[in-house]
Amino acid sequence: MKPLVVTVALVAMVSSCVSSVEPEAPTREDLAARRGQMLIWLAEYREQSSFPRNRVQPGKVNIFIDENNHYCAVANLMRLDGHDGLVRQTARHNNFIRLADVHNGPLYDWMLSSGLNQEEIAFIQEPYFMEEPEVRWEEQEDQRLKDHFTRVDRELRSNTTASLDTATSRLAEQAVRRAQERLAQAR
Known about the structure:
Low-confidence stretches: 1-21
Shape: globular
Radius of gyration: 19 Å
Order of helices and strands: HHEHHHHEHH
């Protein structure tokens, strides 16, 4: 089977076929603007230090929303982006979700249009240590997470061009796949 080669002409053709069915995919400029907003929100999240706590299992685990309604960094980005319903639905269905493992559905669609690529979102989604009965545990965990999100911010800012290239390409590939699926169903 030949690899899928996405060209501007192919994307235009597919877009014209599906424009009445789906909203238009964000442009590179749209993705860049969304990425800029995500970085601002991520910096605010880091400074607020309102991180979820792992009180459910030993070791490190992803917690989408904890029992005190603290959102993980990615869930917080999604909430601020107007997708709190999806965040809460995800937390009810699988509160320990690893977004690196999501490859379709509404979460994947949000990731594709967020301005961040999936690898970056996985980097942002830092698992949380289980609380130890130490007096200063929360302060240590907050500092560890602040340091992590400082590294995330630095890396995301330095990889903007490559990330936007990846995001644009993946959106185009998704549009082609969906158009092919609709064409196959119409036959």
